[in-house]
Structures are given as C-alpha cells and as structure tokens.
Amino acid sequence: MSKVELAKSAGFCFGVKRAIEMAYEQIEKNEKTYSYGPLIHNKEVTGDLEKKGLSIIVSLDNIDEGTVLVRSHGVGKALYDALDEKGLQIVDGTCPFVKKIHNIVKEHYDLKQGVIIAGNSQHPEVIGINGWCENAANIIETPEEASALDLQEGEKYILVVQTTFRQSRFDEIIEQLKKKNILLEVFNTICSATEKRQAEAVTLSQKVDKMIVVGDKKSSNTQKLVEICKKNCENTVHIETICDLVLNIFSKNDKIGVTAGASTPPAIIKEVVVTMSEAFDNAVQNLGGSEEISFEQMLEESLVTLHTGDVVKGTVIQVVNEEVSVNLGYKSDGVIPRGEFSSDPTVIPSTVIQPGDEIEVFVVRVNDGDGNVLLSKKRIEAQKGMEDIEVAFNEKAVVTGLVTEVVKGGLIAVVNGVRVFIPSSQVSNRFIEDLSVFKGQELDFNIIEMDRVKRRIIGGRKALVEKEISAKRAALFASIEAGSKVTGTVSRLTDFGAFIDLGGVDGLIHISEMSWGRISNPKEVLKEGQTVEVFVLDVDKEKGKISLSLKDSDMNPWKLAVDKYAVGTIVEGKVVRMVPFGAFVELEPGVDGLVHISQIANKHVVKPEDELKVGEIISVKVLEVNSEQKKISLSKRQAEAPAEEAVEETATEEVVTTEA
C-alpha cells in the first residue's frame, strides 16, 4: 500500500492569504474593485474572484472611480502616485515581506547608493521593487550574471533578493559580488515562509519514491519547488490541478510526497491528496472528502482557529501610532496595543520591530469589540521570564534586571518581562538615601522570595554586594601598601574627615591630612562623588583600616622653610589664632609662626587681642626657624623697629635745624 505525505507548509503563505482575504472583503462591500494585475499566480483563484466582481487591470487608463487592490507582489512608487493623482481608493495587499524590500530600496536609493536585485527581471515582484529606485536597479538571476555585472569601483551598493529566490543561488551571487571592488551591503529578504517551504521540500523529496508539486505554471516559487524536488527525486511531477495528474505513473507501493506553491489554495491540495489516497486505498485522516467547495469556503478552511489564552506566531503587517498589527492566518488581524508590547515602558515598538518580522504573541481576546484579535507580547515575555526567574530562584543564580521605577520602599526591576520588587533594605549593604540614582540602570541580584500564584517576586542585592565587596576587599588588602598613590571616590563626608571608596573598601582622610593649610570643614576641599588621588599613610589589615592623605610629602612647605624664611628677613603674614602667650601668624598654607606676646609691641602687652585681631595682615621679622619641629619664631616689634628709628632720627634733625 502506498503512503502519501503532505509537506506541512504546503499552500497559501500568509501574504497571499491576506491579499485574498482583502479581495473577498472588498467584493462584499459591493463597490467597484479592480486588481492591478492578477492577485496571485493561480488561475482557479483569480477566476473565482473575477466571477464575483473583481476586475483585473494592467493600466489605469479609463479608470476614474472605484477601488484598486494592490496585489501581494507589490507595485512601484509610480503607481501609488498615479492612484493618488486620480483620487482612486487603494487597498494595499502587498505582502509585508515585499513592502519591507520597498522601504530598504527607497531609503538607500535616496542616499545615492546603487541597487542590485537578485531575482527574475520579468517577475511582478521584482518589477515592483525596481519601481522604488526609479527602475535604476541592476537585476541579476544567476552567479554568472553577477560576475559579469559592470559596477563602479569603490561605490556603495545594496543587494536585495526576490522573496521566493533560492537561498543557495543567492549565496553564490553574493560570493561573486564580493569579488568586486565595491562597498556592498547585503539584505537577505527571502521570505521565511519560502525558506521553510523549500527546506521541507528538500527533506520530503529525499525520502520518497515520487514527488508531486502542485501550483500554477507561472508561479515563481512553485517553479523553484519543482527544481528543488527534481534534484533529490527524479520522479517529480508538476501539476496545476487534479486534472493534470496521471495516476498510472504511480504504483501501489510508492512513497509519495506532496507539496504546493504559496499561491495554491487548500482545496486543490486536498483534492490531490485525497485522490491519491483513495486511488491506492490509503485513507488520509483529517482531510475529509473531495466534494466541490467555493474558494471562500476553502479560504475559511485554511484559516487557523484561535482561543483566548493561545500562544501563536504571526507576521507584523504594520506599526501605526506604536500599535502593532499582526497577521495570524485568522479571519481577522491581531492588534498589540502599545501598553501590551513590552514590560519596559521605554521600549518603542516601531524601533524594534518592522513589517515582515515574525512575532510570538499571547491571545488576550479573540474579539476586542472592533472585530480584531487583542494580542499581547508583554505576556509572552512574562511567561518565559517567569520560567527563567523560577530556575534562578531554585538554583540561587544571579539575574540581571533594568530598573524602571522607584517606588515607595524600593525599586522595580524588569527581568525578561517580569517585574521584580527590590526593597530599599536589599538594594545595597548600606543605607542609600536617594534610590533615584538607580533608575535606568541594569542591576545584578538574586531572587530571594517567589510566589508564582500571587506573582510576588522579591529581589535582593545585599548579599551579592557584600560578597562582591568582600572579594574586592581581599584583593585590595593584598595589593595596597603604605606610601603608594591610589585613586578613589569620595563616598561620605564627616566633620572629622572624608571616607574614600578605593573599590570595595573605604579609607579615611583625616581633616588634618586634607591640606597643608588650615581648614575648618572637609567640604571646603572635597565633595561626595568626587574622584581623587590620595596617598596611603598606613594599612591595618587586621582591623581593615586604611589611613589616607591628600598631602604630597614632596610638596611639604616646611622643606623649603629654612631658605624661604631666613632669620632676619621681614615677611607678611595673616593672624590666624590667638593664645594667652601670643599669636600664630600664617606665612603660607601649612606654615605658621608664633609671635610671642613680648614681641608684639614696644610696650607691655597684657593680652594679644589688645594689639591684634584674627585675619589681620601684619609684617613680622623671622627670629628663628626649626623645620624639623615645624616651628618659626616671629617678632612684630622688631619688624616695626626700623621704621620707628627712622621716625625718631627725622624728629631729631628737625629739632637741631630749628635751634640753629
């Protein structure tokens, strides 16, 4: 007994099915409707549509009213312009995969780049694509034609390919074009459905005795199926309908494979399979009888059945106002509202998806009230993400999430479409006052609590941060030494100094080590978040403490004090501090000298405050310098003595002159 096996992807592709659905819907409106060229390459379908009122035209001459249906193969830009000029209504049945090629070609042609199309120059799809670059494309169909192509060296070109082209031949064409001295950008625009159909044809034809390919003789994708099958199975026959099938070439023990082109309706495929099966007494389940049915019925039979809660795959038709329309192979298109596209509110659908892309979706409602199927991509992300999170929870693995919100008591991070709450106590190993700094950041954390039923998922970073800090601490203490120079970030300021994050470990700069000069508050020198270079004064590995300094010992002003402030020189300084026994005067930042109370004035001084005030600039004479003990003795009285003596001498001369 023979066995008949039908390829899973045989028959209508979604683009063809979509165009036919549009045609029948338009006819039902009882409006005058035209198809610009045959809707698809199948005489049975186009014949049925013509009977129901769809007129096929090849020119807009004498067409002044009505609706024009653009076929699935697509057309050039000039036709859209002509339709617009005439004020005719347009129903665009262009396959989304083909529309994607139009957009690519127009974009790059507008950038003055050359266009190369791999495909049949006489095929309506290729003619339409060429119409988006003012018919200026180089069209090739074989590797030999690619090799012979005369292109401008060093110029930019793009390569697109007819959706039904053979992948192996396209690869050969690419290899030939790469040998040329041009800047080539390749867009593999072969339809995924075509690739799948051809791949199934290869597999099926390799394991059967005879192969039947069903499809119109003018159909490009059907011709390629025939070519593929003949390579693997010499006994391959190509038929358009059951009438072309010669049964006496088959024997009872044959293994028979059946596939069909993208324009072949399901009723014709069914009739072929059932006839073959009945001829050899081999019933085929789920195919039913071969009674005559209308094309509308066969179209209905080819549509998938949807239920709320289903997870299905579809193809993006368009993105309008960030709402995504999806072809599901159902009688109505699906719609993904902006809010159902992603759990991440910052994701813009039009930037991550485009017409022709395949997408997996969750069916929220089969009818949203407007006749559309309400879909959600966000829920698919959440379902898959929930599984990943459950694995991470069980295995105590680390996950990465994007912080999208700062809420009361913590953060919301999205992990593969699932919202995870991170309490403020679990954000870090220390208190963080302003959690908004984490918004928009990707954080690593563990799942510390999970209730799938309540969808309660808690994340925690505290243990992870402590582990990271512990590792960094060990690495730092193993390498840091007193006397070295390191870079860190000011993590916290206090009245007595500043804590510097050295990469997991905080070191302390005491206020006395912030400047050679005198400061009253660390904020005068540093601010939180500032990157600084510091000197390591001491490392206590047992207590885990590191003492730091901002003061470079090479810049110690006391090293130059002996020469700079030689004994006997008169210099200026600022009074900075009063003590009972005198006043300290700053000669420069880091160098203070003492004016003893006996050296303040040429008279008895009870308190320094009686003669001086803090902040006052005075002249002093250097009496003694001890750089090792960092001491300088100064005298205001002796600095002023020469001036006083000069005044006395002037007064004496005036007296003598008067007496004379």
Unreliable segments of 5+ consecutive residues: 282-296, 646-660
Shape: elongated
Average pLDDT, all residues: 85
Structural category is: alpha/beta
The tally of strands reads: 32
Strand content: 25-35%
The CATH class assignment of the largest domain is: Alpha Beta
Strand order of the largest sheet: 13-14-15-17-16
The name of the CATH superfamily of the largest domain reads 4-hydroxy-3-methylbut-2-enyl diphosphate reductase, catalytic domain
What is CATH's topology name of the largest domain?
Cobalt-precorrin-4 Transmethylase, domain 1
* Whole-number tally of structural domains: 7
Kindly, what is the distance between the CA atoms of the first and last residues, rounded to a whole number of angstroms? Answer: 159 Å
Oligomer: single chain
Largest sheet: 5 strands, mixed, barrel
What's the number of helices? 16
Helix content: 25-40%
The CATH architecture designation of the largest domain is 3-Layer(aba) Sandwich
